[in-house]
């Protein structure tokens, strides 16, 4: 199996033609820490110019999932203590890694088995080969904790067919493998009991031969049957407008009304900032420019009361009764939303400018 480079939270080794990255915090659903981001980045650096490594394979240890997202307990601690710099530095390096994965010059194969949420989406859905299984449960759940989809999530969701991405972002809903494929968040379906053989064949025979041997037919995509009301309702210009459409839509099975209830339960501020982020992301032409925008939005979210309160309610105390401030959509002003997009001055992420400069040099 090759020589181990790193142990602990990320296992990195060479396996035949493949460089293997295994997220190794199964007890925490492989939640992503700053140290893990650094180790993954170092592995990609080492393999980029190593001719013995033809492709990279990302997977998660344990049976529950690839990655449940960033370590939001650490984010909560920073927000409560008023020391946001550790979180800002973490996001800087995490977003840079997301952009690196999207531009990686070798095939980057992400095994999106089990739970794949938040930061786990950022590690996988920007890869060139994204594989889901029947156990895949994917979500961008940020609005539930007072945050806005990040790690390139607004880039991906704003480019999903119709208004599917808007629906997923505002509701924080979890989807399965068929819907992940439908929304452009994944490329191939492989049954979970064939993942071991797939990895072996990737190492022994390379990408094309392994995919040809193991990829199966795409499973059912429930969202495909809901496109009519999703596209019609979420095309509204405001959150209040789309909620009105959702509540009035007679879709037959109550799905539209259920979506409205999910949105209303989430942070009013985060929901409005998320809709604005998605609409703006549609007009941005690159992932790097979108990550720059997300960094601004995330940094401003760190200064709002809803982020620590949302994490407290969902993860720390788990009482599931967040006290949002302000508590209603009507109380969230246009000026409050606009503040999320205010420039950060010298603290800007600057990925778009760096990518442009790199392109000019080439």
From TrEMBL:
Residues 19-341 form the Enoyl-CoA hydratase/isomerase domain. Keywords: Hydrolase. It catalyses: 3-hydroxy-2-methylpropanoyl-CoA + H2O = 3-hydroxy-2-methylpropanoate + CoA + H(+). GO terms for molecular function: 3-hydroxyisobutyryl-CoA hydrolase activity. InterPro entries: ClpP/crotonase-like_dom_sf, ECH_dom, HIBYL-CoA-H. Pfam families: ECH_2 (PF16113). It is an enzyme of class 3 (hydrolase). Transmembrane segments: none annotated. It comes from the Bacteria. GO terms for cellular component: cytosol. PANTHER family: 3-HYDROXYISOBUTYRYL-COA HYDROLASE, MITOCHONDRIAL, 3-HYDROXYISOBUTYRYL-COA HYDROLASE-RELATED. This is 3-hydroxyisobutyryl-CoA hydrolase. Its EC number is 3.1.2.4. GO terms for biological process: L-valine catabolic process. The lineage of its organism: Bacteria, Bacillati, Actinomycetota, Actinomycetes, Kitasatosporales. CDD domains: crotonase-like.
């Amino acid at each position: 199996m090759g020589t181990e480079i790193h142990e602990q939270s990320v296992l990195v080794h060479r396996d035949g033609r493949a460089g293997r990255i295994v997220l190794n915090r199964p007890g925490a659903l492989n939640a992503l820490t700053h140290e893990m981001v650094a180790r993954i980045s170092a592995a990609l650096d080492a393999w980029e110019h190593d001719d013995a490594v033809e492709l990279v394979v990302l997977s998660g240890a344990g049976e529950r999932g690839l990655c449940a997202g960033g370590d939001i307990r650490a984010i909560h601690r920073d927000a409560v203590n008023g020391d946001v710099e550790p979180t800002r530095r973490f996001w800087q390096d995490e977003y840079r890694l997301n952009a690196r994965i999207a531009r990686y010059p070798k095939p980057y194969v992400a095994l999106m088995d089990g739970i794949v949420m938040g930061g786990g989406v950022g590690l996988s859905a920007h890869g060139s080969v994204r594989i889901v299984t029947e156990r895949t449960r994917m979500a961008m759940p940020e609005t539930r904790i007072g945050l806005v989809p990040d790690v390139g999530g607004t880039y991906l969701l704003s480019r999903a067919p119709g208004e599917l991405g808007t629906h997923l972002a505002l509701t924080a809903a979890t989807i399965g493998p068929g819907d992940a494929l439908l929304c452009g968040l994944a490329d191939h379906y492989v049954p979970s009991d064939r993942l071991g053989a797939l990895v072996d064949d990737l190492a022994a025979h390379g990408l094309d031969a392994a995919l040809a041997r193991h990829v199966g037919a795409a499973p059912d995509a429930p969202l495909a049957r809901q496109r009519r009301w999703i596209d019609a309702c979420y095309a509204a210009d405001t959150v209040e407008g789309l909620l009105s459409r959702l509540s009035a839509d007679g879709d037959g099975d109550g799905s539209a009304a259920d979506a409205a209830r999910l949105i209303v339960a989430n942070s009013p501020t985060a929901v409005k900032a998320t809709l604005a982020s998605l609409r703006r992301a549609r007009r941005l032409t690159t992932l790097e420019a979108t990550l720059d925008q997300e960094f601004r939005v995330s940094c401003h979210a760190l200064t709002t009361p809803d982020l620590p309160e949302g994490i407290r309610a969902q993860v720390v105390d788990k009482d599931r009764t967040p006290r949002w401030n302000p508590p209603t959509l009507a109380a969230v002003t246009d000026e409050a939303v606009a503040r999320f997009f205010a420039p950060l001055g010298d603290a800007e992420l600057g990925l778009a400018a760096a990518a442009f400069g790199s392109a000019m040099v080439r």
